[in-house]
Write a structure and sequence with these properties.
There is one protein chain. By secondary structure, the chain is an alpha/beta fold. The chain has a single domain, classed as 3-Layer(aba) Sandwich (Collagenase (Catalytic Domain)), CATH 3.40.390.30. It is 47% helix and 17% strand. The chain contains 5 helices and 4 strands. Strands 1-2-4-3 form a 4-stranded mixed β-sheet, with helices on both faces. Helix 3 (98-108) crosses helix 4 and helix 4 crosses helix 5 (135-152). The longest helix has 18 residues, at 135-152. The model is unreliable at 73-83 (pLDDT under 50).
């Protein structure tokens, strides 16, 4: 089971949304074969706040729907984190813009709950090493997303 730490910077996220994300991510962790009690944080924020982070860390000065920061991911010049025995595995952080999620839910024709669940799962899979930079990687990641969402019962 995951230890999930929620942070609602919008003041608008309901208990129903956090329960959905918690249940979905735990379901995904089980399907991915994670053991122990890995940790992940999920922060709900506004478009303006995610825009600032997107500009600073990704060089894209625009709002986006979800950003993930994997703790195990290192960039050139960084020292890798060594996991000590008995210490929790911290997967990283998932940042979700609730404003973008609301717009996208209308655009895609489903409710905001489904969109936030999708974005949380998408960010979680990034933390586990999935990506969509190549067509092959995209097919693998999006296929896994669909499989997890379907088995959880959160389809379009």
């Amino acid at each position: 089971m995951l230890d999930i730490y929620f942070n609602d910077e919008t003041g608008k996220v309901t208990d129903e949304i956090t329960r959905l994300v918690e249940d979905l991510l735990n379901h995904a962790a089980g399907m991915e074969g994670l053991s122990g009690h890995p940790e992940v944080s999920v922060t709900f924020m506004t478009d303006e706040e995610i825009r600032k982070i997107n500009a600073e860390y990704r060089g894209k000065d625009k709002a986006t729907d979800v950003i993930s920061f994997a703790l195990e991911e290192t960039v050139e010049g960084e020292v890798a984190i060594v996991q000590e025995e008995g210490m929790p595995i911290v997967l990283g952080d998932i940042l979700i813009s609730t404003e973008t999620a609301a717009r996208q839910s209308v655009e895609y024709g489903h409710d905001a709950m489904r969109e936030i669940g999708f974005l949380a799962l998408h960010g979680f899979l990034h933390l586990l090493g999935y990506d969509h930079l190549t067509e092959e990687d995209e097919k693998k990641m999006f296929g896994r997303q669909k499989e997890i969402l379907t088995s959880f019962g959160l389809e379009r």
